[in-house]
Amino acid sequence: MYQLLQLVHLILLHIMQWLQPYLSPICFVLAWSVVILGLWQMVAATRDGVQRAQTMHRIPCADCSFFTNQSVLKCPLHPTSAMSEDAIDCTDFEIDSPIVAAQQRLNSYK
Questions:
Q1: Which of 2, 10, 22, 82 fits 74 for a cystine, CB–CB 3.0-4.6 Å?
Q2: pLDDT per residue as tens digits for the range 84-105
């Protein structure tokens, strides 16, 4: 068993001596690859976060007159889709401001 370990040690020693001139460039490339991959992941996470924020800002529930702002029942008309992406094109959306709502109704009749 001891002779086998000595043989493995000798083989690894020869491999390391053969690889020694190439280790510096290999480590250089690997280190910069890790840095570039990390930067790429940060850019991708930022891009995905911005896209998610843009989608969430399209949800009209907070400006709707039916929105109750209660944790139990956010919307009596669509309780399952309130404050979710399903509410983006809500057909029952009505602006909270009565003046703006009246202007929208007048424009829809024209």
A1: 82
A2: 898 998 888 877 776 776 777 7
